[in-house]
Amino acid sequence: MKNTQVKFNENDVFHQLFWFRRLLALPNAQKLNTSYSYLFHVVGMIFLLLVLFVWSLFNKCKAWKEFSSLSVFVFEVVTLIILTLFSLVTILFTNFLRRKSFKVLMENLTELDHLMNNLQFRKRRKCIFIELVTVHLVFVFLYIYDIYTSVISFESNTYIFKIPDFINQYVMTLEVVTMCNYAQAIKCKFKALNLSLKKYVKSSVQNSSMNCDLDKYMDMHSKLCSTISTFNDCFGVQILGVFFVGLIATTYGAFIFLLYASGNAKISYDVSVFYRLMLFLIFICYFMLLGIIITVSCVATAWTGRHTATVCYKQLLQTLPFPKSLCERTLKKELLALADQVSQRQINFTACRFLTIDFKTLCTLFGSTAMNVIILLQFKK
C-alpha cells in the first residue's frame, strides 16, 4: 500500500474542539498539560462547579415554595445533582484516572494517519468546526429561551439558580462531541483501510505480482480494533453517564411535561403553560439526541470495522472468481485467511465493559423511560 504524505494529524483536526475543552479543564488527549498552572486551573474548575452546585441547591431549597409543584422542585434538584456529578467525573477521568489511556488512544490514531489523505482530514476538520458552531448556536437559543420562560414563570430572582445546569450541560455536550469525533476518526481509518485493500487486490491481479502480502492489513485492522478497546476504556464511564443522566432527565422531563399538560401542575403568576411545555419538550429532546448521536457514531464505526470481511469476500467473487495463476491462487488463499480472522473479531463499543452501545440498548432505554413515566404517574394519583 502506498503511503501518501499527510500534512494533517488528529491533533490538527481536533484543534478547535480541544480549545473549547481546555476552558472546561478537558485537555488535549495527547498533550496533557502537567504544569502547576494547568493543575490549578483543573482544581479551580472543580471548585467552581462545587460552589455553584451548593449555591444553586441551597437557593432552590430555600425557594421551594415558589415552584408550582413538589414534583417540579424534585426534578430541578435531581437534574442539578446528576449533571454536576457527570461534569466532575468527566474532569477527573480526563485529567487523572484515564490519563495514560487517552494518550494511547491519540497515539494509535496518529500512528495510523497514513491511511488518510489530506482531503479526508480537511473534511473532518470542517465537520468539527460546523459541529462546534451548531452546538454554541443551540446553547445560545436554549439559554435565551430558558431565561424568558423562567422570568415569566418564576420571576428573574430564581433564574440565576439554573446557571450551573447550563454549565454542566455544556460540559456534557462537548464530551459527547469529542466521543463522537474519536469514533468518527476510527471509522474513517477503517473505511480508508477497506478502500486500500480493494485497490491492493485489484492491482495485484492486474500486475500479476508474486509479493501478495496481506499481513499489513491484518496488523492495521488489529490496531484499529485495539483502538476501539482503548476508546471503551477512556469513555466507557462517560457514555454510561450520558445514558444514565439521559434516562433520569427524560423520565422526569416527560413526567413534568404531562403534569403541566394535564393541568395537575399550575404555573405561578397565571402565565400561559405553553412556554413551559415547550421548554420541557426541548429539554427531553436534547438528552435523547445526545444518546442517539453517541449510538449512531459507535454503531457506524463498528459496522465499518466488520465490513472488512465483506470486502474480502466481495473481492474473491468479483476479482478472483476463478484463479488461474499461482499469484491469484496465493492471493485468494490469503484473502480467505484474512476474511476468516477478521469475521471472528467482536468489534463493539461498550460502556464499562457490560453495556453494548447499539440500537437495541437505545430502544431499551427509551422503553425504560416510558415505563418509569407510567409508574410516576400512577404514584402521583
TrEMBL record:
Gene Ontology terms: cellular component: axon; dendrite; neuronal cell body; plasma membrane
Topology of the protein relative to the lipid bilayer: Multi-pass membrane protein
Signal peptide location: none
Keyword ATP-binding: no
Keywords from the named record: Cell membrane, Membrane, Receptor, Transducer, Transmembrane, Transmembrane helix
Main localization category: membrane
Source species, domain of life: Eukaryota
A Pfam entry, by short name: 7tm_7
UniProt-annotated location(s): Cell membrane
Entry annotated with the keyword Transmembrane: yes
Spans through the membrane: 38-58, 70-97, 127-145, 239-261, 273-303
A GO biological-process term: sensory perception of taste
Family to which this protein belongs: Belongs to the insect chemoreceptor superfamily. Gustatory receptor (GR) family.
Function: Gustatory receptor which mediates acceptance or avoidance behavior, depending on its substrates.
Protein name as catalogued: Gustatory receptor
Origin species: Tribolium castaneum (Red flour beetle)
